[in-house]
């Protein structure tokens, strides 16, 4: 059932789309919400049915890990059924937990494991093994748990969970929903009040879903614009069915493609519109994009809508650093949009991009430079020169570095470029967006 590490690369040569993109599509389920649904349902008492779950490799890793910890997880067609174990009742895994390419799975699960009195070993693929875990091991160790990592706080790591976890009180030094979530999840099996202060608000799917499973979560605004989140443990979660909305981060790729391929018009139905995720949409509108929300509604406790996108003449934009958490995974594809815009763009405060599946700051620069776009980095800002009619875009090879978002961004670039764009490996797209290439072909992309 577990699909395995990508043994061979899947290169792709992408030529400019010869027809406008058109049609109505749905993108796969939200990755952040899918991980949380599986984890919380496994910690709940009773049976939860999840519909719309992202069946991407990252989320399948979470399902496999929760099974190894004793949850019963099956699926019948598109319905995923989880029989939870209850907080405090996870069993010790018999083998190493392999979180594949997924930072979210590794960080959130570390939180859960730290407050369960079991010992486990966690690893991941070469990309995940290069990503920093210190951001979770330092705060989590406050509860009495112990982490033994490879040099530089990298995976593989052993986690000796605390038998009597104390609650953690922590102010986030970086804007990270993964770190916030790890601490809150640890708090479910700690005695007393867990508190996390975030100077800038980050995606709040953990808080929303904890409430959905019956855990009271207190959220207070703090003066600088951030939030203080608290909950009291030990907490009991009650099974509750979950409907996962379409992933706004995945929708970014067909959206930018439709904006850039002349005369396109597409509709993407059922996209999640949580305001802590929609920074890209605001930015694209500032650039002149026709991006309309239709049928806005609430589904499964999250705002959802259909997006209508029309090919648009874009102009350069200056994106403030405080917008970064609401569009953190969208910068590579935004950079592609900026390369085709009229005038230059400045994307500010991108330091967190250095610790994603790849160093996305340098990799995005390399993607553009290889294809004839002028771009530079100043401190943590990326400055992209817009379209220069004397200089063709494309003709280069993109190194995707085990990073799904770079692979999809390179494909979008190729669909609008003057010369073909060669992508070294598209296999990692399956981590977050299985079926991406055929979905784009359904719109006319001709990949
Ligand atoms: O909590 C989450 O589900 C995520 C948080 C973000 O990471 P950080 O917490 O590292 O910013 C984001 O990049 C990732 O794709 C998903
Ligand atoms: C950063 C990402 O995911 P993760 O941290 O879960 O690997 C992403 O999907 O762009």
UniProtKB/TrEMBL annotation:
Catalytic machinery residues: 329 (proton acceptor)
Entry binding sites for 3-phosphoshikimate: 31-32, 36, 176, 178, 329, 356
GO cellular component: cytoplasm
GO MF annotation terms: 3-phosphoshikimate 1-carboxyvinyltransferase activity
Enzyme class name: transferase
Pathway: Metabolic intermediate biosynthesis; chorismate biosynthesis; chorismate from D-erythrose 4-phosphate and phosphoenolpyruvate: step 6/7
Record-listed E.C. numbers: 2.5.1.19
Alphabetical list of InterPro entries matching this protein: Enolpyruvate_Tfrase_dom (IPR001986), Enolpyruvate_Tfrase_sf (IPR036968), EPSP_synthase (IPR006264), EPSP_synthase_CS (IPR023193), RNA3'P_cycl/enolpyr_Trfase_a/b (IPR013792)
UniProt KW keywords: Amino-acid biosynthesis, Aromatic amino acid biosynthesis, Cytoplasm, Transferase
Gene Ontology biological process: amino acid biosynthetic process; aromatic amino acid family biosynthetic process; chorismate biosynthetic process
The reaction(s) this protein catalyses: 3-phosphoshikimate + phosphoenolpyruvate = 5-O-(1-carboxyvinyl)-3-phosphoshikimate + phosphate
Function: Catalyzes the transfer of the enolpyruvyl moiety of phosphoenolpyruvate (PEP) to the 5-hydroxyl of shikimate-3-phosphate (S3P) to produce enolpyruvyl shikimate-3-phosphate and inorganic phosphate.
Family: Belongs to the EPSP synthase family.
Subunit-structure text: Monomer.
Name of the featured protein: 3-phosphoshikimate 1-carboxyvinyltransferase
Organism name: Kozakia baliensis
Gene name linked to the record: aroA
